[in-house]
Amino acid sequence: YAKSKQGRAIQVFNSALLNAFKEDAQIERDLVAAIKGRQFELYYQPLKDLKKQAYIGAEALIRWHHPKKGVLYPGAFIDIAEQSGLINDIGSWVLEAACKQLNLWQRHQIDISMHVNVSARQFFSGSLFEQVWELVTRYRLKPHSLILEITETELMEDIRSATNLCNELADLGVGLAIDDFGTGYSSMRYLKQFPISKLKIDRSFISDLTVSHESREIVSAIIAMASALNISLTAEGVETKEQELFLAQHFCHQAQGFLYSPALRVSEFSDFLTNKAAIH
Ligand code: C2E
Ligand code: MG
Ligand code: MG
Ligand code: MG
């Protein structure tokens, strides 16, 4: 009896696994069509400077208009794109679209920085610097207004290549931000070794700021460290006024989160900026 029960459990497990596998394979096929068919769109989430009380940046976040499934968030496809290598094509499209948009904003005297997420595979592709250089040149971007975001774990995958690339980007003037700071499996050695311009505190430390003594101490320590190292700092996932107040009182530079706005389509983003500017 025990044996047959176990056998059944394995069967159930296998069919669940098989379904997940089939689903991933389908997404991968759909992604190929999505790249060709331009089914992606960048949404922009505002970043607020807590001292200036003004919006000074945007993070580009990819959305996929899937022909059957509707709007898909990156959680549904970025890992699959990464594993299959399709991320290189998607990432190139993202970079180009973000730079094109930044150029438009700059031409309209909208002075905000553009944050673009890059994945490990894209970061270490060997062509990222050339691509960034070409875009900055072609779109006549102020290099400091472009900031690439990568997680600490991904950055540390290949320390030698990372060292070269980080230095090249820094020489060009393009910023490098550590995304989801505090959640990776890495030492903080890279803060010594690489020219990092910004840390983004992961939202898991922000969400329980008002109830967790530990999170408060960790966030205070990160703020003190970033300030001592002269690294800019953004708190991710700010959802309440209390969280903002804590961050402002501890002199955290910037905040991003649903308290201000989710990621918006480009036209909504412009309206958002206009409305906020009118209030101040
Ligand atoms: P991320 O870079 O850490 O981006 C922040 C994520 O948190 C976004 O999710 C954003 O919508 C969400 N978020 C922002 N404020 C709040 C808040 O107050 N509360 C909560 N609960 N969530 C908030 P999204 O857009 O689903 O993106 C998820 C992740 O996908 C991103 O995390 C990033 O790692 C990745 N991603 C997004 N766009 C791209 C892209 O173009 N290329 C690559 N390689 N990865 C991307
Ligand atoms: Mg990010
Ligand atoms: Mg991330
Ligand atoms: Mg993040």
Give a short synopsis of this structure:
The chain has 280 residues and is α/β, with parallel strands linked by helices. Helices cover 52% and strands 19% of the residues.
Describe the model:
This is EAL domain-containing protein. This protein has 280 residues and is α/β, with parallel strands linked by helices. It has an 8-stranded mixed barrel, surrounded by 5 helices. Strand 6, helix 8 and strand 7 form a beta-alpha-beta unit. Helix 3 runs parallel beside helix 5. The protein is globular. The model has no long low-confidence stretch (mean pLDDT 93). It binds ligand C2E and magnesium ion (3 copies).
Oligomer: single chain
Decide which structural class fits the backbone. alpha/beta
Report the biggest beta sheet as strand number plus sense, adding barrel if it closes: 8 strands, mixed, barrel
* Largest sheet: spatial strand order: 1-2-4-5-6-7-8-9
Gyration radius, in Å: 21 Å
Q: Helix count, per DSSP?
A: 12
Distance between the termini: 73 Å
**Quick one: overall form?**
globular
**Distinct small molecules bound, one entry per kind:** ligand C2E, magnesium ion
* Helix content range: 40-55%
What percentage of the residues does DSSP assign to strands (E)? 15-25%
Please report the total strand number as a whole number: 9
The stretches of 5 or more residues where confidence is low (pLDDT under 50) are none
The H-and-E topology, N to C, reads as HEEEHHEHHEHHEHEHHEHEH
> What value does the average pLDDT take?
93
